Amino acid sequence: INREMEYFSSNFIVAIHFIVMLLVLTVHGSITSDKEALISFKSQVFSDSNPLSTWDEKISPCNWTGVSCDELGNHVVSLHLSGLRLTGSISPHLGNLSSLTSLELQNNQLSGPLPDHLGNLIRLRTLNLSFNSLGGVIPSNLSRCKDLRQLDLMQNQISGKVPPEIWHFAELQTLNLARNQLAGDFPSSIANISSLVDLNVGTNKFGGPIPSSLSRLTNLKRLDLTINNLSGTVPPSIYNMSSLVYLALASNDLWGDLPGDIAVTLPNLLGFNFCFNKFTGTIPWSLHNLTNIQIIRMAHNLLHGSVPPGLGNLPNLEMYNIGFNSIVGLGDGGLDFLELLTNSTRLNFLAIDGNLLNGTIPKSIGNLSKVLTKLYMGENDIYGSIPPSISELKALQLLDLGDGSISLEIPSEIGQLNELRVLRLTNNMLSGTIPSSLGNLKQLTKLDLSKNKLVGNIPTTFGNFENLISLDLSENNLNGTIPTELVKLPSLSVFLNLSRNQLTGSLPEEIGSLENVAIVNICDNMISGNISRSIGNCKSLEQLLLARNMLSGEIPVTLGDVMGLETLDLSSNQLSGKIPLDLQNLKLLQLLNLSHNNLEGEIPTTGVFADPSKVHLESNHDLCLGLSCRTHRGRNLTLVYIVVSVAAVVSLCFTVGVIWYVRRRQRMMKKGSFESFVKSQPPMVSYNDLRLATDGFSEDNVVGRGSFGSVYRGILEGAAVAVKVLDTTIAKSRKSFLAECKSLRHVRHRNLVKLVTVCASIDAENEDFLALIFEFMCNGSLDDWISGRRRRKNADNMRFNLLERLRFAIGIASAIDYLHNETEAPVVHCDLKPSNILLDSDLTPKVADFGLAKLLVVDANNQTSISSTHTLKGSIGYIPPEYGYGVKPSTAGDVYSYGILLLELFTWKNPTHEMFGGGVSLRSWVQQQFPTNVEKVLDVELVEQMNKFCSDEEIMSPSCKLPQSRRDCLVTVIGVGLSCAAESPEARISIRDALRKLKSVQQILQKQEFANGGHEHCSLQLQIMD
């Protein structure tokens, strides 16, 4: 028995050891496979700040940043990497994390499709990939994640229809698909997710009616269907979803009356947003009985009637917007309902503009909420005075009382609103003087007092404005001189309008200080004296309007330096002397009106003068042309017209002579083309203009997204434009907007994208709206072609040959040379990369995206400093090495980025390609083969085009040799790229030297093309720096 017990005991111990070893191996195998999945993920993402530096393969992943494991450290259960600025794509190997319950990668810059393998995470409860740039479709096998509670894919580029399997999650509580490109009819099967609490599918392309089956979601608290293509009436059952706390149906095509008993059927409602639809009837009488409601938004509908009682019962109200309906007031007490809002101490937004309200502003308006920031009351029939008590609204940032019948004086107390950014009092009957106290509003960006009856001087205190970008005092009775302090405001960048007043005196000599302003309009005053030569310093001017004054002296020749000038009107003054020949150089000038002056001498014949329809010279009796100036001096206006017509005929003959070239380049433009539109377009458009131009900012018109916001294709007056809408919720978006305006208004070059106009306004939701409108580049970006996206869209599968690639390189270099060496203050782009090189209809490259641009300013001590509102950013692979050590942006940094771009253009390899890493970069890879084996790094298609005598199999073999003449040229080009991308800034050549060498190569290649295979060699010598 003892022997049997000993035998049993020994076998039992062996078995236990065996089981323990199996468990250890299993545990080790699980954590090892999880580590491999995470390493694969890391290999496909990048970030400047290297946030995954703790992901060391030598230690357990449980100790890595953002990784959590179970209590025993056997399995990874959560991966949280939000807000780390990660770029790249999501590795499908994440699907191997079999125990993962939470995956949160929101607020990064990830791109690419959603991996199908995410459906393998069957224990997943939270999936948050919001605020990235992920594309493709929603994988149908995501429905395998049966335990999913939260699915958040907001703010990506996901398209297509939602797979029907998604609507069968049994445990899902939050579903957020907002701000994507999802389409199709809104499915009724969504009612199957009975556990749903929060549903947000706003800003997509869902169409059809709202399904009545939604009412079966008895646990639903938030329903957001805004900005889609939904149509029809709202099913009555929706108004019976008593659990709803927030209901938003704005910006669709919905109609019908709103039920009066909405407070009874939706007793828990805190937010109600029905803006931008076609709802009719009156404001629901019971809505003001929801004592806990916080948001009421019904603007831009077809509502009528008066404001129902009960506003005084809403202590938690934060936003009340009934603007742009047909709401009426009752007699002199039509605005008395505002007094009831004094109980709403949390109110920060109030909009009643665009209605039929009448009456006076109650004196109690100063008792409104102390946190009120925006007050819209314009476009009504409001009369009487502005109560001084309005100054009690200390938090006010926007005050709009325009387009009414308000009279008497502007109360000086408005100058106490220290937070005010926008003051709009236009088109009223205001009288008296402009209070000097307005100069205390140092935060003010827009001031519009136009179309009133104001008198007296322009206050010198306006010189205190620090952030003013537009000032409109036109159509008043102002007198006195233009304050010197006013024209010294460096912040003015949109317009200065003082027209139609009674201003006297001369134009201040300091007017040249307005370096950033786009429009100066001082027409219809009594300004006398000379036009200062300093006007030539206003490099950003697009319109200069000084007509119908008493100006004398000569037209300053310095106006020829304002290269962006599109309209120049100096008519009906007393100007004398000759027309400056420099005006011929203004390539963008579309209207020149010098009529009704005392000008003399010869009329120029080129530039704008070649087109009589753009030039007005009548009533200048001493103007003449050519020989007639000596024999017929003093001829009347008829002769002037004849002379100008002759110039036009000469111009026409010249035009006929170059038609063959125009046809060869296929650059004939249709009527209403972009160019003719840009040159006649005023420099500002409204939000509504852009909303119409982009079909309501339809997702169909989105041509790109980025960290800044979105770019839409739009049509303005028949011409295509690109509308870049900035996301104002992002910090520093306003500074980015102003920086890009400033950079682009200082530059004019054929290889720079043209800024057509800007829009700084309020959107449909009464939020700040900033947009930049550019010429539309129909052929996408250079990155589209390199990645193959654009080529696949072209039936001819166009492939760029050597000369075409060289033309791209020279065009880009020309733009950078202009920015570095030809502008008054050198501009550093800071983000050169293929996606920022756009191509027009002729495939002309144009540098775009100046959101990171820096102006280099040289001070009195010849020290260079940087004028910028940005912290340093850039794009992985193109950022110069020294920036990583805190070195300030410089022109040498742009040269480095250009060098990488040039190498990419000829190798067709992106610097972030998977083949690069572990110490190997695009530059080092090219350097290793240079110059002996340079063909090994060239794009295969380029080699094929240059050697038509090798078979497909021989193309990359040693037996297939490039023609020596072409090879020499390529060695020079690649050498330029390597020299530009040298590690040390001091070792890099200048962009001007790079441009010179590339142009020399181009000339040689063009000669070879002409000679059909000549033997001239590229003999340029270039030292390559390591």
From TrEMBL:
<keyword id="KW-1133">Transmembrane helix</keyword>
<dbReference type="GO" id="GO:0051707">
    <property type="term" value="P:response to other organism"/>
</dbReference>
<dbReference type="InterPro" id="IPR013210">
    <property type="entry name" value="LRR_N_plant-typ"/>
</dbReference>
<keyword id="KW-0723">Serine/threonine-protein kinase</keyword>
<dbReference type="Pfam" id="PF00560">
    <property type="entry name" value="LRR_1"/>
</dbReference>
<keyword id="KW-0547">Nucleotide-binding</keyword>
<dbReference type="Pfam" id="PF08263">
    <property type="entry name" value="LRRNT_2"/>
</dbReference>
<keyword id="KW-0808">Transferase</keyword>
<dbReference type="GO" id="GO:0006952">
    <property type="term" value="P:defense response"/>
</dbReference>
<dbReference type="InterPro" id="IPR032675">
    <property type="entry name" value="LRR_dom_sf"/>
</dbReference>
<dbReference type="InterPro" id="IPR051716">
    <property type="entry name" value="Plant_RL_S/T_kinase"/>
</dbReference>
<keyword id="KW-0067">ATP-binding</keyword>
<feature type="domain" description="Protein kinase">
    <location>
        <begin position="697"/>
        <end position="1005"/>
    </location>
</feature>
<keyword id="KW-0597">Phosphoprotein</keyword>
<keyword id="KW-1003">Cell membrane</keyword>
<dbReference type="InterPro" id="IPR017441">
    <property type="entry name" value="Protein_kinase_ATP_BS"/>
</dbReference>
<dbReference type="GO" id="GO:0005886">
    <property type="term" value="C:plasma membrane"/>
</dbReference>
<feature type="transmembrane region" description="Helical">
    <location>
        <begin position="12"/>
        <end position="31"/>
    </location>
</feature>
<dbReference type="Pfam" id="PF00069">
    <property type="entry name" value="Pkinase"/>
</dbReference>
<dbReference type="GO" id="GO:0005524">
    <property type="term" value="F:ATP binding"/>
</dbReference>
<keyword id="KW-0675">Receptor</keyword>
<dbReference type="InterPro" id="IPR008271">
    <property type="entry name" value="Ser/Thr_kinase_AS"/>
</dbReference>
<dbReference type="InterPro" id="IPR001611">
    <property type="entry name" value="Leu-rich_rpt"/>
</dbReference>
<feature type="transmembrane region" description="Helical">
    <location>
        <begin position="639"/>
        <end position="662"/>
    </location>
</feature>
<keyword id="KW-0325">Glycoprotein</keyword>
<keyword id="KW-0812">Transmembrane</keyword>
<keyword id="KW-0677">Repeat</keyword>
<comment type="similarity">
    <text>Belongs to the protein kinase superfamily. Ser/Thr protein kinase family.</text>
</comment>
<protein>
    <recommendedName>
        <fullName>non-specific serine/threonine protein kinase</fullName>
        <ecNumber>2.7.11.1</ecNumber>
    </recommendedName>
</protein>
<keyword id="KW-0433">Leucine-rich repeat</keyword>
<keyword id="KW-0472">Membrane</keyword>
<feature type="binding site">
    <location>
        <position position="732"/>
    </location>
    <ligand>
        <name>ATP</name>
    </ligand>
</feature>
<dbReference type="GO" id="GO:0004674">
    <property type="term" value="F:protein serine/threonine kinase activity"/>
</dbReference>
<dbReference type="InterPro" id="IPR011009">
    <property type="entry name" value="Kinase-like_dom_sf"/>
</dbReference>
<dbReference type="Pfam" id="PF13855">
    <property type="entry name" value="LRR_8"/>
</dbReference>
<dbReference type="GO" id="GO:0051606">
    <property type="term" value="P:detection of stimulus"/>
</dbReference>
<keyword id="KW-0732">Signal</keyword>
<dbReference type="InterPro" id="IPR000719">
    <property type="entry name" value="Prot_kinase_dom"/>
</dbReference>
<keyword id="KW-0418">Kinase</keyword>
<dbReference type="InterPro" id="IPR003591">
    <property type="entry name" value="Leu-rich_rpt_typical-subtyp"/>
</dbReference>
